[in-house]
Structure formats: C-alpha cells, structure tokens
Amino acid sequence: xxxxxxxxxxxxxxxxxxxxxxxxxxxxxxxxxxxxxxxxxxxxxxxxxxxxxxxxxxxxxxxxxxxxxxxxxxxxxxxxxxxxxxxxxxxxxxxxxxxxxxxxxxxxxxxxxxxxxxxxxxxxxxxxxxxxxxxxxxxxxxxxxxxxxxxxxxxxxxxxxxxxxxxxxxxxxxxxxxxxxxxxxxxxxxxxxxxxxxxxxxxxxxxxxxxxxxxxxxxxxxxxxxxxxxxxxxxxxxxxxxxxxxxxxxxxxxxxxxxxxxxxxxxxxxxxxxxxxxxxxxxxxxxxxxxxxxxxxxxxxxxxxxxxxxxxxxxxxxxxxxxxxxxxxxxxxxxxxxxxxxxxxxxxxxxxxxxxxxxxxxxxxxxxxxxxxxxxxxxxxxxxxxxxxxxxxxxxxxxxxxxxxxxxxxxxxxxxxxxxxxxxxxxxxxxxxxxxxxxxxxxxxxxxxxxxxxxxxxxxxxxxxxxxxxxxxxxxxxxxxxxxxxxxxxxxxxxxxxxxxxxxxxxxxxxxxxxxxxxxxxxxxxxxxxxxxxxxxxxxxxxxxxx
Length: 547
Fold this sequence. Notes:
Layout lengths: L10 E2 L7 H31 L1 H10 L6 H29 L1 H10 L2 H10 L7 H10 L1 H15 L7 H12 L1 H13 L13 E2 L4 E3 L2 E3 L4 E2 L3 H4 L2 H14 L2 E2 L10 H29 L11 H19 L2 H10 L6 H32 L1 E6 L4 E6 L6 H4 L2 H8 L1 H11 L1 H27 L8 H29 L2 H15 L2 H15 L3 H22 L10
Helix pairs in contact: 1-7, 1-8, 1-9, 1-11, 2-3, 2-15, 3-6, 3-7, 3-12, 3-13, 3-15, 3-21, 3-22, 4-7, 4-11, 4-12, 5-6, 7-8, 7-21, 8-18, 8-20, 9-17, 12-13, 15-19, 15-20, 15-21, 15-22, 15-23, 17-20, 18-19, 18-20, 19-20, 19-23, 20-21, 22-23
C-alpha cells in the first residue's frame, strides 16, 4: 500500500477493494477501522438531530409557554433542516475527502449542542429562539449522507449491504441513545454551577425505568450540554483515525492548504443549504415566526429544488466540475425509484422516531370524552397515562438493531425481494395502528389501547430497519462505485424529509381529532411503493432483477 504519510489519518493513494489479495492483506483492516470510527460519529449526529423529539416532551412537562402545535413545529424544523443538509452532504466526500468531512461535520455538532443547552435555560425566550436551535440541529441529520457515501467507498460490492447496514444501523442507535440518555441526564447536575440551575416539573415525566413525579428538579439544558462529553473526543478520533481516499477525491492530499480548502468547501455548501431551508420555513411557518403562505407539500419541493440550484450556481473551481458530474445521477430512472423506496424505509424510521414521543404524550396523556352539548371532544389529564420517555425509545432501538440483519439477508437473497416483503408488512401495520389511534383518541381510558399501539409501532420499526439494509444493497448493486455514494446520499436526503412530514401530518391530524388518517395515508403510500418495487425489480421483465 502507498500512503503519503503515516497509515492512520493519511490520504491513501492506492485503493483496490475488489482485488481479493489487496483486500485481505491491506484493505480490510483500514476499511473496518474507518467503519468503527464512523459509527459513533454518526450516532452522535443522529442524537443531535433527533433530540427535539424528546426535548419538546419535557418542555411540555416543564410548562414552557408553547402550544402542542408549536412544539410539534420544533421537531418538524429539525427534521426539515437535517434532510435539506443531506443534499449537499451527499457530495462532500468526493469534494473534500472522507476524513476531512467526517472530522469537521462531527466537530460542527458542538455548536447546536451548546446553543440548545443555553436556550433551554430560558423558559421566557420567544419561540423563534428555540426554532433557530432546532434548525441548527439539522447539521446532525446531514451527516448521514456523507457518512454513508464515505463508508461505501471502502468496501467491495459483495460486502456493501453488510457494511452500510452496520454503519447506518449502529449509527441509528443515536436515536435510541438520545431517547434513553436525555431523560437520564436531565435528572442530575452534570456540570455543577457551570451547567445552570434546575427547573421544576409541573407534569409527571419519565425515563427508561418509569415515571418521574411532578415537582422533581430537572436540568433540561443537559439535553444539549451532555453531548460535549462524547463529541470532543470523537472529533479527535476522526481526525487521527480516519482516511481520505485519493481514488475517490483526486484533489485531496495531506497538505495544510488542501485541508483548509476542503473545510471551506464543506462550510460553504452547508451554509448554502441553510439559506433555502430558512426561507422555505419562513414561508411555511405561521405567524408570528413566519408568513404561513405555503403548505408543507409546496414548501418541501421548493426547498429541495432551490437547494440544488443554489449549489449548482454558486459552485466554484474544481467543486463546480465535480458537482456537475454528480448531478448525472438525476438522469437515471433508478435514482428516482430508489428514492421512493428509501422513503418507505428510512423516511418512516426517522419520521416515526421524531413524532412518536409527542404523539404518545398527546393521545394517551389525556382522557377523551365527547360533549354532546358543545358537540366537541373534551380532553382532561389522564392519571394512568404511560410516559413517552419510558417507551418511545423501544421502536427506534428495534429498527436500528435489525438494520445490519437486513443488509446481511439482502446480500444472501437479493435486496428487492426483502423490500417487497417489508412493504407489505408496513401496509398492514400502519393501517392497524391508525385504527388503534382512533379507538384511543375516542376513549375515556386510552391507556387500555397503549399495548397494541406500541406493539404495532415496534412492528413498523422492525420492518423499516430490515428494509433499510435491503435498499442499501440494491443501490450498491445497481450503480457503479462512482455513482452509488451520491445516490445513497440523495435518497437518504429525500427520505429524511420524513422527519419533517411525519410530525407535521400526525400533529395536524391529532389537532383535528382524526389521528388515524395520518397512518391510513402512510399505508396507501407503502402500497404504491410495493407496486413500484415489483415493477422495477421483481416482475418477469424487470429493469434489474432482484438486485
């Protein structure tokens, strides 16, 4: 093997993973080292991105002066920002190098972690301050696209499903880790007087071991500050333990000038992605934060298209040439079919992860009685309500845990047949959970429906996890090595908008008193994608047979 300096942290000039002799003698060790450093970095990215799903529940329990609908917007904003930042992130590896990108984007997570911790100490701050922090947390969501693009370049095609499944699956444990760690760290003063004073719960809360009674001191700011303990050492580990591949990024080397240039490209593209996201949110969000001119289905494509246009029009130097080459993926029909299928799997996983905690709190936290006199539903506090912070982590945990299994099975039997099976499961499960939500939302004792509700969501998360591995495998087989990374990044970016869509759709339907319609709508979409998957990859004359 030929490297510019030392093996660790150096740019590798010779990389031939499909060469069996090279792989066994040299490549395997380096590839797995990069993978095992990538996993915790990605885990922290998911944690920072998804933390608003838990923070909003605790803000409600602490009596922050915001409505349930306003709190749902915080989760949705974080979801939209993370999805939008994945669009430029999908191109970063080929523009700036793997080691450079993963190091800097991991270090960048420190900003939203610290900013969120500061904001949460001020209950009297306006809503827009928390919305800004939620927007900033999108950095963590963007990291998935660059992480997957990077790891895919290190492994031979025969191991792509397994390697990408491990990176994504174990990285996705960031959602579960966050849902377990944040309720825990909020119970103690980790940083003493430096970390700020506690607040007092006005409603019962909870954590993995059960309820936390109202009146308990709570350090909600630790939801942000606690991540400093892992992000600082992880950033150092990324810099000294990961590699750039010159075969993937021809212009990268180990010189200071080249590294600074890579950092400038990363910051430039990430900054550009914030602009359309911010403008789109301003047009979408209701007053007083925004103008409320666009609905979600208009705001989302506007943000996606404007992000791509901004990237293309503002690129400079070699970056412009590289971006033009990457845009070739949009001419391939398989890019669009796989985008839809990846929405089924990852879009559902992250969307349900974001929306589930607050949904549990709203649907099962109150009793529901219909008042004939006023012709309206009356909601009162449910003394037997299950705590969202006790149960919400289970589904994402299952989904993340089975992702590597999905990749391994797909490597053995083909990705598309696995996608077909899990799509059918999701059609049935989402329809069933919608029915259970309807029963719970019209009950004076909604907690009796909670076991069925959480059980069906676990089935959904299980299916999304298996399906994630299958779509990774399919993309790796269909596309060549130069295009598979950008396609993975692009499909993950669009699917990540599930983190925006699910909280908005579920939140709106809960507000309207018809939560079941959200899940019925998802079931229809899954059924359409089941047909799409069959047409492209499973029928007799499929474009590519069961890749």
